[in-house]
Amino acid sequence: MARLSMRSADIKPSPVRDMLNVSLRPGMISFAGGLPSPETFAGLDLPPPPRDLLQYGPTEGEPALRAKIAEDLAALGLDTCADRVVVLSGSQQGIDLAAKLVIDAGTSLAVESPAYLAALQVFRFYGARFEIIDRSNPGAGWAETPPSMAYVIPTFQNPSGHCWTAAERQAMARACQANDVILFEDDPYRDLVYEPCDRTPVCAGMTGGSWIYQGSFSKTVAPGLRLGYLTASPDLFPLLVQLKQAADLHTNRLSQWMVLQYLNDPGRAERMAQVSALYRRKRDAFADALTRHLGNKASWSLPPGGLFFWLTLGDAVDVEALLKRCVERGVLFTPGSHFLAEGGASSTIRLNFSLAEPEAAERGLAVIAEVLC
Question: What gap in Å lies between CA 78 and CA 70, rounded to an integer?
Fold first, then answer.
């Protein structure tokens, strides 16, 4: 349509949102989304909030919440302060702001593959072209033609569940600094840890250069609050705030107040330990069920944290056809092809283990195994 922008021609529906709609069908067993277990939602039995929160607020977020976030981030080794924290309307907003800041049609972006599909959706919408990061040699080829930005989820990556080693993190920081590449680190799963592993933010190693680091409260408090946060190097932060001003003026103040109560709760650490213990049990039960039903039909690694198993099926498996037949029998998963920056078919699937109860997971995996036969 001539009245619409050229960019609108590239709008594609989100497979995540489409699958969420399918997952709401009665009786559907969903392994598709990254939905946390409702058991983990922070108790929100709170006193009435101050009435002044019903008024407009600052774009950057509530000062007390920003100060608390900055305190937590500084403890992780990040060079930040309250004045360089902005509270987001969910971390997906941070991806959109970073894309607006950096990407024009044809801009080169370094990403993992597989990578978070909703980030790929945003980057494609703004016209990015992708080059794939080699974790064993990050920055290979960047000396001649460096990308504008590198987007990574180094801790319990979505979808693979992989956690980068300390050496991989250090190498990535060095490569970005040496080649003047903006490092964008997305870190929504860091608190969902089940095995010892290095979780030091890559951005903590950026002693110079440009970087963006963001996290989320969706996996640790409740996703319905739609609250995330972002900090960035001094050269980028003011620009990101200005972009947010144009996007939504400010983030929901009631949600910010609720999250601040959670962060200040003396029982916060104990609660997170309980959440991790719950998810570790669910992960282990899911792994046992996978072995029973798909042990001779797929391969996978035990994720040390996060919410996902990444399965590789036989090369001859048509994953899209498998999904269609499974949905007909009340089971939903996400095909791995949706996570590939380079596109194309894939014999991989992502399974979320956090939402379904063990009995439902057992039934759902049995269905996938039966359809595969």
Answer: 9
DSSP string, 220-252: TT-GGG--EEEEE-TTTHHHHHHHHHHHHSS--
For the beta carbon of residue 13, count every other beta carbon within 10 angstroms: 8
Q: What is the pLDDT of residues 308-346, one digit of tens each?
A: 999 999 888 999 999 999 999 999 999 999 999 998 889
Rounded-to-10 torsion of CA 274, 279, 280, 282: 130
How far is CA 78 from its chain centroid?
19
- Single-letter amino acid code for the residue at 282: K
* 268 phi/psi in degrees, rounded to 5: -60, -50
Nearest to 209 by CA among 241, 185, 188, 245: 185
Q: Whole-angstrom Cα distance, residue 305 to residue 276?
A: 9
* CA-atom Rg of the chain in angstroms: 21
Angle at 287 between CA 283 and CA 289, to 5 degrees: 120
Is it true that the peptide bond before 159 is cis, omega within 30 degrees of 0?
yes
162/195 Cα distance (integer angstroms): 12
Tokens standing for residue 47: 């006193």
Three-state DSSP class for residue 311: strand
Q: Report whether pLDDT(363) > 70.
A: yes
Place of tokens 């962060």: 263
Give the contacts of 164 (CB within 8 A, at least 6 positions apart). 135, 152, 154, 155, 157, 172, 198, 202
Mean pLDDT of 88-96: 97
Which residues are CB-neighbours of 303 under 8 A, at least 6 positions away? 156, 161, 162, 194, 283, 309, 310
Amino acid symbol at 203: C
Q: Output the furthest CA–CA distance in the chain (Å, rounded).
A: 61
Q: Is the pTM of this model over 0.90?
A: yes
Q: Are 337 and 321 in contact (CB under 8 A)?
A: no
Residue closest to 293 by CA, chosen among 84, 29, 42, 46:
29
In DSSP notation, 62-122 reads: -HHHHHHHHHHHHHTT----GGGEEEESSHHHHHHHHHHHH--TT-EEEE-SS--HHHHHH
